[in-house]
Amino acid sequence: xxxxxxxxxxxxxxxxxxxxxxxxxxxxxxxxxxxxxxxxxxxxxxxxxxxxxxxxxxxxxxxxxxxxxxxxxxxxxxxxxxxxxxxxxxxxxxxxxxxxxxxxxxxxxxxxxxxxxxxxxxxxxxxxxxxxxxxxxxxxxxxxxxxxxxxxxxxxxxxxxxxxxxxxxxxxxxxxxxxxxxxxxxxxx
Length: 189
Description:
There is one protein chain. This protein is of the alpha+beta class. The protein contains 6 helices and 4 strands; from the N terminus they run ααβααβαβαβ. A 4-stranded antiparallel β-sheet has the order 1-2-4-3. The mean pLDDT is about 95.
């Protein structure tokens, strides 16, 4: 599959089979992330692969955060939310958490560090798609919680910018509806 075709046909795949994904494929997907553009070559990305029991450990963190964030809920509602949060990491056989540790160099702009890591995530999603895997990039408020940062051992400046849920597709994605480019671009000559 050529690059443009991969870009045009990649979709978020939220429903995947629980079949294992070979380690070599996971490593290839992560390696593709390291080829993202990166001003000053700071390599701010960090990759954490969660499989098996590792997903349950993340689920426990999600459960704890949910309990802290919903203390005013009714007991029934709180229990339901906590159970759902705890199960979220089990939706795919592999999760690649992508973190960002910004450089301390004075000439490095924080915005560019985020851009580099987000570009790495896009490389990874395209690579997964080209290898026949389904993936979805998830975050949400919970991803930015201090307890998530602590779980992954990131510094006070670091953050998790993506949870890539990865597996073999168990759904057929809908075609994308895109605004025609002539409505989005301006030629300045």
